[in-house]
Amino acid sequence: MIMKNQIFRTVKEWLLDAEFTITLEDEAQRILIIEQESSGIKNMILIVSDSILIMEQFLFEIKNPSEAIYRSLLKKNRDIVHGAFALDQTGKRVIFRDTLPTDNMAQNEVLASINSLGILVGEFSKEMIEMSK
Questions:
Q1: HSE-CB of 33 using CA atoms within 13 angstroms
Q2: How far apart are CA 72 and CA 105, in angstroms?
Q3: For residues 51 and 61, what is the distance between their CA atoms, to the nearest angstrom?
Q4: Are the C-beta atoms of 124 and 80 separated by less than 8 Å?
Q5: InterPro entries per the record (predicted)?
Q6: What is the pLDDT of residue 83?
Q7: 31-36 and 41-48 as β-strands: parallel, antiparallel, unpaired?
Q8: What is the C-alpha to C-alpha distance for residues 13 and 106, in angstroms, rounded to an integer?
């Protein structure tokens, strides 16, 4: 348990060094919620699991699901450097999700995964807005 909490604290330090705002911290559950609006990061959840770091951020809800929308999301997944679009259980809420193993994780890997979301939002925002109408 000590090692897991040390990983949690290390991830927290990396995020603070990169000037992310931590809006919620639960060391017992090993959960952080972060934001950095200038990068398009808002309410991103980070969970330090037993062996992986899970990063998720809700992006939008699909109002009128169609095969074309799901096809577009799958095609865009190919362009995302780190992470991917995922759907929640309803199939309508689109989430950005990435995971990293914690055994040899480095700060640059964590930040690259988070920054990938910022790039995605910048490149794909018009399409995401259309999908949410």
A1: 7
A2: 31
A3: 30
A4: no
A5: Tir-like
A6: 93
A7: antiparallel
A8: 12
Question: What does the CA dihedral 64, 45, 51, 84 come to, rounded to 10 degrees?
Answer: 40
Residues facing 57 on adjacent strands: 96
Question: Looking at residue 50, what is its pLDDT?
Answer: 78
What angle, 0 to 180 degrees and rounded to 10, lies between the N-to-C axes of helices 2-17 and 107-131? Answer: 70
- Which one-letter DSSP state was computed for residue 106? -
- DSSP state, residue 52: E
Q: Which residues of 104-127 are buried (b: 16+ CB within 10 A; e: fewer)?
A: ebeeebbbebbbbbeebbeebeee
Q: What is the rounded average pLDDT of the residues 17-41?
A: 94
2-131 placed in CATH 3.30.1460.10: yes
- CA dist 15 to 27, 67, 74, 126, Å? 15, 37, 29, 28
Please tell me the pTM assigned to this model.
0.89
- Cβ neighbors of 72 (< 8 A, separation 6 or more) are 127, 131
Q: Where on the phi/psi map is residue 116: left (φ > 0), alpha (ψ -120 to 50), or beta?
A: alpha
